[in-house]
Amino acid sequence: MLAKLPMAYMADLRVTALTDERATVTIPYKYLNKNPFNSIYFACLSMAAELSTGVLCMMHTYKADPVVSMLVVHMDADFTKKAVGKITFMCEDGRRIQQAAEQTKLTGEGIAITATTIGMDEQGDQVAEFRFTWSLKAKSKLLA
Known about the structure:
By secondary structure, the protein is α+β, with helices and mostly antiparallel strands. 27% of the residues lie in helices and 35% in strands.
């Protein structure tokens, strides 16, 4: 993580579970990611939330033939409770992401898929919900 995502490393993000269907990422409340209101800074929450969706995209496009590029093209979020302690983001859209990756490989057309991730605190209360729209596009074999 240090080499590829140094800010995620510094914020102490952890991918705690990864299957074809879902990914779970945690972020702790600590000095480097706090805000003046004694909670986790929203940008750090966004980073953890994005990783929970992005790792599924990466998993379903890793070593794809043809190569599939991925890019976040939109994000929106709702914050429902102050984020303190360890926050766990879970995205359960892995199968939909896999289908989108397969579709772009077959057609060569770009596809946008919106993945939702929910952030929960240690008491099981929802603190945030993020929706990331990923653009997946198979690269032409002539360009790959």
